[in-house]
């Protein structure tokens, strides 16, 4: 078995990009040994590769062959003469995964230089280090979820440090990192803005309130797609995976927002060219006369071509009578998702129980929509955070008493099937603003504080529903 060159290429990119930059710092940064710079950068690449290989604890032959090929010539000694079995028996990579969770001395030196000089050296490190991570993940025929999780954990920790150093949010840090790394952006069609770097979109996903499990699943989808594309570039076997998804959850849980971000991710990765999101429900798919439903569904797929189609309340397609044409819509969808699997991503969304029943009762859907991402209801703290965000965006503040009343209102909202989740917080904010306006017009000469402050009287009691 010949070693896959992916890791060696990624290590070379890492060393070639960082060695001259670190050498430039040697005269100005304490703790940088000018005589050891080349070796230190290679050791950093070694530690990164070892940690990513150790993420799943398997240390497979393809991984170790690539590791030996990448570092044997650089360090010589027994490693250059080793076989995979030798590396495993010597436990050379055992417990190396811990490196991903510890501050890197080299990265900290680059971060310090960025903070002092306004450079983007840590962003360059970020880009090339992730290149090593994705190269490792592409070595085995099947990429383990724990490998993708390790990449994501490392990505998030380093982005947070870059953001902290620059005094910006994670999204801006991701944009800077992608720009410094020379990330290619997908070409834009005239009516679309340029595609954003994947990490910038993921950073926006991170900023959403709550939805931690959803974020993890979306990142897993994105990382697996990146690895499979990397394998395809290198002529390696790739998984014949379906990218179509089921989003299950109650209204107002962020399904549409996440679908829009996922569309951007797929566009940035080159899975689809346009990456636009088309939303439709039963009324947009089912016609009232024989022979009209299939053309209607096809027209919607044409509109969503090279993008993402979100079918909301998809379970409603099969809730009609025997003479209803919803079944025809389902059959047409099944055919089109197969015929156009390389041109469109379809997401079917709706209540959890109904979506589970829909997929279970339709074998064609079950095989083409194998993955479900569940969107849980927001708890009171998350709803309060959404209300606070609306206040900040609108230029409002709440008194302590008003905020306590907001919490009481959200606590008292019934968590039944009709619960609106984020819409409850949004509607409560809009109602509070309307009530404040009615109060302010009675003040003869309101101050700026009057205009920006929501008081307890502006917050409806929780018995008065605004959902």
Brief overview:
This protein folds into 3 domains: 6-200, no CATH class; 242-375, P-loop containing nucleotide triphosphate hydrolases (Rossmann fold, 3-Layer(aba) Sandwich); 380-458, Helicase, Ruva Protein, domain 3 (Orthogonal Bundle).
Percent helix range: 55-70%
Describe the global form.
globular
Structural class estimated from helices and strands: mainly alpha
Strand order, sheet with most strands: 2-3-4-1-5
Q: Evaluate the radius of gyration.
A: 26 Å
Strand content: 5-15%
Distance, first to last CA: 62 Å
- Which stretches of 5+ consecutive residues score pLDDT under 50? 183-190
Oligomer: single chain
The tally of domains stands at 3
**How confident is the prediction overall: mean pLDDT?**
87
Which sheet architecture does the biggest sheet show?
Answer: 5 strands, parallel
Strand and helix order:
HHHHHHHHHHHEHEHEHEHHEHEHHHE
Number of E-state strands:
7
Our count of helices gives 20
Task: Explain how this protein is built.
It is a single chain. The chain has 467 residues and is mainly alpha-helical. The protein folds into 3 domains: 6-200, no CATH class; 242-375, P-loop containing nucleotide triphosphate hydrolases (Rossmann fold); 380-458, Helicase, Ruva Protein, domain 3 (Orthogonal Bundle). Helices cover 57% and strands 6% of the residues. It is built from 20 helices and 7 strands. It has helices spanning 6-25, 37-54, 61-75, 77-80, 84-89, 105-117, 121-137, 145-166, 170-180, 198-207, 212-233, 255-269, 293-303, 326-339, 352-361, 363-368, 380-394, 400-412, 422-440, 448-452, and strands at 245-249, 277-280, 308-311, 345-350, 371-375, 397-398, 453-454. The longest helix has 22 residues, at 145-166. The chain is globular. It starts with 5 loop residues before the first helix and ends in a 13-residue tail after the last strand.
């Amino acid at each position: 078995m010949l070693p896959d060159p992916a890791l060696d290429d990624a290590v070379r990119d890492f060393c070639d990009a960082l060695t001259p930059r670190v050498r430039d710092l040697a005269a100005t940064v304490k703790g940088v040994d000018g005589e050891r710079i080349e070796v230190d950068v290679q050791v950093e690449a070694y530690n990164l590769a070892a940690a990513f290989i150790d993420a799943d604890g398997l240390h497979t032959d393809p991984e170790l062959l690539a590791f030996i090929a990448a570092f044997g010539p650089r360090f010589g000694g027994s490693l250059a003469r080793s076989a995979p079995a030798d590396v495993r028996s010597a436990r050379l990579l055992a417990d190396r995964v811990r490196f991903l969770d510890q501050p890197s001395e080299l990265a900290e030196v680059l971060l310090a230089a960025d903070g002092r000089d306004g450079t983007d050296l840590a962003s360059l490190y970020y880009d090339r280090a992730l290149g090593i991570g994705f190269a490792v993940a592409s070595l085995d025929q099947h990429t383990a979820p724990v490998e993708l999780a390790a990449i994501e954990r490392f990505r998030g920790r380093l982005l947070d440090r870059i953001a902290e150093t620059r005094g910006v949010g994670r999204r801006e840090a991701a944009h800077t990192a992608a720009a410094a790394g020379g990330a290619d952006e997908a070409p834009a069609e005239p009516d679309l803005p340029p595609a954003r770097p994947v990490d910038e979109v993921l950073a926006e996903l991170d900023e959403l309130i709550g939805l931690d499990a959803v974020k993890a699943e979306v990142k897993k989808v994105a990382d697996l797609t990146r690895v499979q594309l990397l394998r395809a570039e290198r002529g390696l076997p790739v998984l014949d995976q379906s990218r179509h998804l089921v989003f299950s959850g109650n209204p107002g849980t962020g399904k549409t927002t996440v679908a829009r971000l996922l569309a951007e991710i797929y566009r940035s990765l080159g899975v689809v060219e346009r990456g636009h999101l088309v939303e439709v429900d039963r009324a947009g798919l089912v016609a009232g006369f024989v022979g009209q439903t299939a053309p209607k569904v096809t027209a919607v797929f044409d509109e969503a071509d090279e993008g993402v189609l979100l079918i909301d309340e998809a379970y409603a397609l099969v809730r009609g009578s025997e003479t209803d044409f919803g079944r025809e819509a389902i059959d047409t969808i099944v055919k089109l998702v197969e015929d156009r699997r390389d041109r469109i991503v379809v997401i079917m969304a709706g209540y959890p129980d109904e979506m589970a029943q829909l997929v279970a009762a339709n074998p064609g859907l079950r095989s083409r929509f194998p993955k479900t991402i569940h969107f849980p209801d927001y708890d009171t703290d998350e709803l309060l955070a959404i209300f606070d965000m609306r206040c900040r965006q609108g230029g409002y503040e709440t008194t302590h008493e008003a905020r306590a009343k907001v919490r009481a209102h959200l606590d008292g909202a019934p968590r039944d099937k009709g619960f609106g989740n984020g819409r409850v917080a949004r509607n409560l904010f809009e109602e509070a603003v309307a009530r404040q306006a009615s109060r302010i017009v009675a003040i003869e000469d309101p101050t700026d504080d009057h205009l920006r402050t929501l008081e307890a009287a502006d917050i409806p009691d929780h018995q008065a529903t605004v959902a």
